[in-house]
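Contributing new records

If you add data, match the layout below exactly. Sequence lines come first and carry their own label; structure lines follow with theirs. Keep one chain per record. Anything else will be rejected by the validation script.
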Amino acid sequence: MISLNRLNGAEKIVTSYAKELLRLPIDKPLIGAEFGSAYGGGIEAVGKLWKGKGVVYGFDTFEGHPKQLVPDQKSFEATCMDNWYKKEIYGKEKLSYEYQRKELDRQGLDNVILKKGLITKDACAEIPYLHYALLDMDIMESMEIGYAAVKDKIEPGHLLFLHDVTPPTHIPRTFHWFAEEVMGKDEEMWTVLGDFSNMYLVVLSKAIAT
């Protein structure tokens, strides 16, 4: 399966943490979630690592970038996925729920759970906790809703990965949302572990209550 974040290096950061979780003394099943899982390569990689030890959820439309949510239809925020969807690049066939579920089942990865549709604030209602979450939806409104869905589910001391919120010029609306809402209003909830602008990735650790 295809991972777009393998190309920019962000997947390596996420999977490194997934590997680290296997070495930590955690006394319950591992649970992770990726929002904007696209072609599924990222959740496939974690599913292989965690087989028999945990589950990972992949949230996506499985139909393509919902650019109708973006106010400026000509902005990079709206068009950022267009090139990947060209037939001569990756096309759209391998985006589909049916294709990905079949491929995951072929590999015996029943610990990868696909959730189809636009993100809602209740997306994680049935998930008891998260050891990590990746938000990679490119669109500010989607990132905002995804953040609301995961921020109280992530276990203290564990990680939130935010893609396409850095550098400031990449997708300005997602950067300003991150700076003003996440690191503004919720500053006490998070510690920045890394700002990897070359990978468009910020890594946050959730505060441990004292």
